[in-house]
């Protein structure tokens, strides 16, 4: 699964930056706990909505109703995406820029360009 | 949960159209089994991806990586949406139009307009 | 220019369907005059907005303001797209389906899938 | 027209930052000439494409062809939007952040959130 891949990739890196495990150059996020738990809560709700979609297909619910429910999931996921992007820009991006690392801008632009497709 | 609502709404209707439970006027979907199981399989995979997202947030995976993974989920969900829309138009919409019910066009246009936002 | 290409392509076809120049199988649109003139009016306004964008760039208007103005143009163009799609589905698509031509559904699905990207 | 409005709004501000008319705090863009002329060229082409759309509607070109041409315009305008956003972030945003003005991040997030809708 993709998260395993990401986790593994990240898990292999810490030795490169041993001391300051909460700063951005380690490429680890460090959001306030409140934000993290809010995002996790929203993702759990979305997970339940996706499970609901499977059930709707299983039970032959009318397609137009399922399409509307898929749009609701899209929208909920879009909300998480915006929240995370905001936290990323306000946190990591600003921080890396201040520490003189301008590469983060290329990374951000690549991500935003992909998002605007 | 939304699917319960939908299921309940639909479950209450069958008595209106007792005989032909597989035709569109009952507002029940009737996709071929192969399509249904393919969509359910894809939705289960998406459910796992969303669960993976929670774990990524939990484990402080770097935001930019999570953003890319959210886009992967968006895209997978978009694929299901297109497949379902296609099945809906080719099945229910064409069928209802042939049986003289033009209201399905208003319904379709409302859904498509919402999708294009 | 792209419109020339389209016009040319269409201009070359009329001889194939000489009699019924206002029906869909000729692949000519035949919207009511009111709808046509409304769409043309909106497109002229959009043309002016795009001309305005060039001027904004020329005069070094602050980028964020130009970005918002581009979004306004996007939205105006999106309005024309929805209006046209609605007219197309309610007119040509329904008509071709009634005359037994189901190929229009493939064409519509290809267009809608591209729109949903 | 909107660009007049924007120009006017900006034109009224210069007295606040009299000396350094090419830096970001004046809220004037200052893109390299090459980028400006490239964007203006692309906007002129888009203006011609929109004019072409009016002609297509006027000449009853088949709707599906017009819809595809509208998508081509969408895509061309999207290209200008991405180019401008990139120039904005790499130029003004980075510059304002370095000069200690963090408000530009709120402005950027508001714009990006609107773009992602």
Could you walk me through the main structural features you see in this protein, from its secondary elements to its overall organization?
The structure is a homotetramer of 117-residue chains. Chain A has 117 residues and is an all-alpha fold. Chain A has one domain (33-115): Metal-sensitive repressor, helix protomer (Methane Monooxygenase Hydroxylase, Chain G, domain 1, Up-down Bundle), CATH 1.20.58. Chain A has four helices and no strands. Chain A has helices at 2-11, 33-58, 63-98, 103-115. Chains in contact: A-B, A-D, B-C, C-D. Chains A and B meet through α1, α2, α3 and α4 of A and α1, α2, α3 and α4 of B.
List the helices and strands and how they pair.
4 copies of one chain form a homotetramer.
Chain A: H1 2-11, H2 33-58, H3 63-98, H4 103-115
The gist of it:
By secondary structure, chain A is mostly helical. Chain A has four helices and no strands.
